[in-house]
Design goal:
This protein is 34% helix and 20% strand. The protein is elongated, with a radius of gyration of 20 Å. The termini are far apart. The strands form three sheets. A seven-stranded parallel β-sheet has the order 8-9-7-6-12-13-14, sandwiched between helices. A five-stranded parallel β-sheet has the order 2-1-3-4-5, with helices on both faces. The chain has a two-stranded antiparallel sheet with strand order 10-11. It is an alpha/beta fold. The chain folds into two domains: 131 residues, Rossmann fold (3-Layer(aba) Sandwich); 203 residues, Methylesterase CheB, C-terminal domain (Rossmann fold, 3-Layer(aba) Sandwich).
């Protein structure tokens, strides 16, 4: 039996502390090391025992979560997950947290219905395990216990057609990422010129977060970056990022590519799911597509990338050295779904070079 992942929960809401304790204690690989109502109490607990992962709220009395995060990163780096309601105005704060060293951002447990609570449980526990892997790479943990059936892309879209649609003059680039992906995507997009073929992207994120993320990237990149809306056309020089908590599919009408944004169950434990995007890209773009799978825990996107490759697309995986978590790329590599394995700083050049041959 491997050691459990010890978590310190820091939140001023007693209700949230109770909900997070219930969520984390339900997973046999995780245990609550301690709980604290504010960063001052949390600091005293860390002096006695260092957790593997900290779950940290943003707005709290005596010291805000971002200030505490910066102190942790400067004095004793520990994997920190920001747990926020992510109201529309909070998106920028969450992005600042990632820039300050947070591993990931998650929403607080949804207490509305049992179904929503179960979905929150899956996301939170998986994120804690990913965070623990980022910091303590030598530690070995038990395989994840499935608390609910793990759905495939079949739940959203049937398998790709046996024959890909006819080739057009337009190329589409489909990208999937998770833990560590916010920084990896920034590096990738800032390396691309204005004339880059249209891109469709799934980054595992909560609702109300992707819009702020896209807006920030749009200010620093030559390509245009926006949160996707239903029926948006895929345009050269533009990146469409799937909105948090919604699946995004690539579709085609004649020579026009566009996206469909829809609700649906968790696929490969995620919504949005990379597998859903990649499968739809295999179906509607075929040989016209390029696929990139980047840093992240789990296997979302691996099967979809194989379907893209089988449909004639050229596929790239980020290499182990440049990944924060070499989970998703590694699973795609294991399936022989990848044409090239490249470090992050080489992916943009490889995409542009390949686009010129299509």
């Amino acid at each position: 039996m491997g050691k459990k992942i010890r978590v310190l929960v820091v939140d001023d809401s007693a209700l949230v502390r109770k909900a997070l304790s219930e969520v984390l204690n339900s997973d046999p690989e995780i245990e609550i090391m301690a709980i604290a109502q504010d960063p001052i109490v949390a600091a005293s607990k860390i002096r006695n025992e260092v957790p593997d992962v900290i779950i940290l709220d943003v707005e709290m009395p005596r010291m805000d979560g971002i200030s505490f995060l910066k102190r942790i990163m400067a004095q004793h780096p520990i994997p920190v997950i920001i747990c926020s309601t992510l109201a529309a105005q909070g998106g920028q704060t969450a992005l600042s947290a990632l820039e300050s060293g947070a591993v990931e951002v998650i929403e607080k447990p949804n207490l509305g219905t049992r179904k929503f609570f179960e979905e929150s449980k899956i996301r939170i526990c998986d994120t804690v395990k990913a965070a623990a892997m980022v910091k303590v790479k030598a530690r070995k943990y038990l395989k994840s216990i499935k608390v609910s059936p793990k759905l495939t892309a079949d739940a959203i879209l049937s398998c790709p057609l046996s024959k890909a649609m006819n080739k057009t003059t337009e190329t589409v680039i489909a990208v999937g990422a998770s833990t560590g992906g916010t920084e990896a995507l920034r590096i990738l997009f800032e390396s691309l010129p204005r004339g880059t073929p249209g891109m469709v992207v799934v980054q595992h994120m909560p609702a109300n977060f992707t819009k702020a993320f896209a807006n920030r990237l749009d200010k620093t990149c030559l390509v245009s970056v926006k949160e996707a809306e239903n029926n948006d056309t895929v345009l050269r020089g533009q990146v469409l990022i799937a909105p948090g908590n919604r699946h995004m599919l690539l579709k085609r009408s004649g020579a026009r590519y566009y996206v469909e944004v829809r609700e649906g169950p968790l696929v490969s434990r995620h919504r949005p799911s990379v597998d859903v995007l990649f499968r739809s890209t295999a179906r509607y773009a075929g040989k016209n597509a390029l696929g990139v799978i980047m840093t992240g825990m789990g296997d979302d996107g691996a099967k979809g990338m194989l379907e893209m490759k089988q449909a004639g697309a050229y596929t790239i995986a980020q290499d182990k050295t440049s990944c924060v978590v070499f989970g998703m790329p590694n699973e795609a590599i294991k399936l022989d779904a990848v044409n090239s394995i490249l470090p992050l700083d080489k992916i943009a050049d490889a995409l542009l070079k390949k686009c010129r041959t299509l």
